[in-house]
Amino acid sequence: MKKAMLKIAIPLLIMFSSFLLAQEVDGRDDEGVSGAQGISISIERAKAKEGRIEVFPCPYCGKRIQPGHIHREGEQILLNQLKDALDSRGIAYIENERRGSHLHLYVFRFIERQGGNMAIERPASVGFHLHLLEHDKVREVFVFDEEQRPLLENIFGIGKFFKRGMKWVTADVLSEEGIEKGVDTLKEFMK
User: Fold this and answer.
1) How many whole angstroms from its chain centre is CA 36?
2) Are residues 22 and 37 part of one domain?
3) Higher pLDDT, 163 or 101
4) Is the pTM of this model over 0.70?
5) Which of 31, 73, 93, 125, by CA, is between 20 and 30 Å from 84?
6) Are 48 and 10 in a shared domain?
């Protein structure tokens, strides 16, 4: 009886240890995040040429961007939102260490609304690329480029209008919406 159990147990132990060894070699855990410390993240502000605002290609993915003003706290707000989004999904991260799998947030516009919830002079506008890099090569890109529009100008945006509480939102709210969508989109590629 003991010999029969050993004949079954030994191959099972070998298979299980091979499985564990393969996971260590791959360097990924069950969440698909690289390494023990997690995916590295960084943020960068787009630089307009000599104060001019013109369309130019993203230096990472080549997609065209229309830069604009970036609020002095815009980068920090977006970085905190990215950290919160990763934390809420159980994705470990490490800041400012570009290695292996890397999430790079390239901000090219973060304009706060001027006015209140019901009436504005200028709506919030946020634009960024969220690049998933593998060894400094672009693997996937999520583009968020949005300025809130009046409902009558964009009747197809009625779902967003109701989701946003039927009011003009701040750049913080708009950017959080983009970060959440971006992390959800790229999460499947982080495996």
Assistant:
1) 20
2) no
3) 101
4) yes
5) 125
6) no
